[in-house]
User: What shape does this take?
Amino acid sequence: MKISMKYGEKHFDLNFEHKNVKIISSLSSPKLKREEEILKYAIENPIDSPRLKDIVKPDEDVCIIVPDVTRLWQKPSVYLPYVIKELEEAGVKDDNIHFICALGTHRKQNEEEHKLIMGEDLFNRFEIIDHDCRDKDNLQYVGTTSFGTEVYVNKLALQCKHIILTGGIVFHDIAGFGGGRKAILPGISSYETVMQNHSLSLNPNGPGSNPKVRTALMDGNPFSEDMLEAAKFVNPSFLFNVILDSDGNFTAAVAGNYITAHRKGCEILKSIDSFNIKEKADVIIASAGGYPKDIDLYQASKALSNSVEAVREGGTIILVAQCIEGLGHKDMEHIFYNFKNNAEREKEVRREYTIAKFFAFVICEMAVKYNIILVSSMDQKALECCNIKITNNLEDAIYYAKDAIDNADLIYLMPTAGSTLPVQS
Assistant: This one.
């Protein structure tokens, strides 16, 4: 069986023979509709909501929450004009439209990055403000969730009559799905609010990560439910979310009620990017999907989380992910290198939680349950601390896993592990 595994800007051609090997991949879209058709239909046919132009009155202030530069794959510069057109038809003046970039806890952005997010035309028409999660003077308390999270959000957003959420829906290894309520928390929330929410990813009743916090799960997932409660305090007027395939094409869009439209989008994503498997394999050979999905280990960890859904505990995972920028975050280095074992790592995550620390801890947890071989440009000793072997070519990785491959009853090949979720039926 021949298959291509993306690696950074390049790829490995794999010619793989085995008695029982299968491919896990997203369903190929039948015939893609034109992006204009997809976006126009969504904005004109909102779910459980009037059209945006019928919600907003001409003299009312509107705050549009947009993704930051790390989410450019969502193509906000393409879909935002459809939102603006609705507001124009409602008679809303440019001076009444405000853009806030949902940075969460990310760094501030420069003018060029704002232009990439908005597109040149909208950038020249409107001011875009970066949310600052540490600017206490511009944060306002709106309530405390049933999980105990004290929710502080951006004051400018609260000063507007209407808040519109935008973004993209993807599988998320902690929140279940991206999009929707995430534009509020972590998007425009305080640093303390984000950390309180994110700490729900740890097991409250014992060691390790919270088993209820996982990919494609929202109901019963405290991390996601806490975010939704935070969004309810703000009560957004409208949502516009998009879904793209692994090649960056729009496959669907949803608009309307910020809860039910988002859920519909999650259902659409599952129908496209989940793959039913009857049983778990002994070995999986997966690619994160190339650049930028494998720019660093922080990003490539999404592919690792998806891969473990298709391999039995004790099995072997070969992950192809260049990680040209290394681990991707100093907090990951801290967790990997400054602690002797996972118990000590967990203590540190609980002491001072960050999402990067948590991801590093989860990778270390996986390395106990699975034999992980990483095909990467990183130093081959970079992850010896958690028993992950690194090699810089796929051929060597297959050689290292020879015994596991020879004895395997079932092997999966997963070329788009960063965006495909295996689901056992």
Notes: The chain has two domains: 2-26+278-424, 35-273. The mean pLDDT is 94. Residues 355-369 form the longest helix (15 residues). The domain at 2-26+278-424 is CATH 3.90.226.30 (2-enoyl-CoA Hydratase; Chain A, domain 1).
